[in-house]
Specification:
three-stranded mixed β-sheet; Porin; 2 helices; globular
């Protein structure tokens, strides 16, 4: 049987004990697991909405890294690699991702496969329907613990270290000027138990609903303002709401500021390098006081859109009825 009180009393390093309680206070408990956060949600939508698969109309690769509370031993980190693309000249798309999330003694590695189908509603409006299947390996890394008694029977049973399948679904509506998305990337809430005779539940990953949206506003010939939001609704009550404002200068770069209610304020900068490469950096500064946490969070994303292996599908391109309708963002890529 896993005994939390004995777990604390049998760890030598007091810093680890403090870190354990820090995660309990900040994350709502390590035993109530949430999907990892991303300040750059506009660049990483495939992470939480399978309907975004193929939307960029290219062979799109995304490398993402988030280091939370940099400098704090055992602080949360998340690394994601994803690739997605339309299938030839069809309206269907496929994609996949591999992620590795770590927080203290908890490790979670997940592989996801995505499928979406795009439907044109009119000359410049589309809706995409997507689904995903995932397989995650959740484990409790006891090698990180410094025990007083190495043979303590409280730590002989395995905790977690299981493979769990899941499925999800989403929808994504977009035009030249706006987008709206709704998704549930993991429909099944998962409980992780110890493998002893008592089968104690040591962690639970709850179902999370995502709602996102944005609208582009012209500020003249060269500048665009793009306010956006991301709302996460968790079945355990751990919700979050992000509002972001970005200013675009042509297709060269954009800068923005984001606010996560009662949690942090962030700055973002994205630089385009040619047509195929974008690099985005953001820094989150905590605005509330938590025990042991005073440092911010760094996040960086590398986006690559390749047209060497796949040609743009004209059926996915915006079509204008009149010449005067040329004013607007030319591609969903800049969303």
């Amino acid at each position: 049987m896993f005994n939390l009180r004995k777990y604390i009393s049998h760890i030598k390093d007091r810093k680890r004990v403090a870190l354990f309680f820090t995660f309990m206070l900040v994350c709502g408990g390590c035993f109530a697991q949430l999907e990892p956060l991303s300040t750059q949600h506009m660049n990483n939508q495939i992470m939480f909405n399978p309907a975004y698969t193929g939307i960029r109309n290219s062979l799109s690769a995304n490398l993402h890294a988030r280091n939370q509370w940099l400098g704090l031993n055992g602080a949360p980190t998340n690394y994601v690699m994803s690739v997605h693309s339309p299938i030839n000249n069809s309206m269907a798309s496929l994609g996949g991702s591999l992620s590795n999330y770590s927080a203290g003694l908890i490790k979670d590695t997940k592989f996801s496969a995505y499928y979406s189908y795009l439907v044109r509603l009119n000359h410049n409006t589309f809706v995409s329907f997507g689904t995903n299947a995932s397989l995650s390996n959740y484990r409790f890394d006891r090698n990180e613990m410094n025990l007083i008694e190495e043979d303590d029977p409280n730590f002989k049973s395995k905790i977690g270290n299981t493979f769990n399948p899941n499925i999800g679904a989403g929808v994504f509506l977009y035009s030249q000027k706006y987008y709206l998305g709704f998704s549930i990337p993991a429909l099944i809430s998962t409980k992780y138990k110890s493998d002893d005779e008592n089968a104690i539940v040591v962690a639970e990953k709850y179902r999370t609903i995502y709602a996102t949206g944005s609208y582009g506003i012209s500020l003249g010939q060269d500048f665009y303002l793009k306010p956006s939001f991301l709302y996460r609704i968790n079945s355990a009550g751990f919700n979050s709401f992000d509002i972001t404002s970005q200013v675009f200068y042509k297709d060269y770069f954009w800068a923005g500021i984001s606010y996560r209610f009662d949690t942090s304020i962030s700055i973002l900068y994205n630089q385009s390098i040619g047509e195929s490469l974008n690099i985005c950096y953001s820094y989150d500064y905590p605005i509330i006081s938590k025990p042991g946490i005073s440092k911010g969070t760094h996040e960086i994303t590398l986006l690559i859109d390749s047209y060497q292996w796949i040609k743009r599908n004209r059926n996915r391109v915006f079509q204008r009825k009149k010449k005067q309708e040329l004013d607007g963002i030319e591609s969903i890529r800049y969303f």
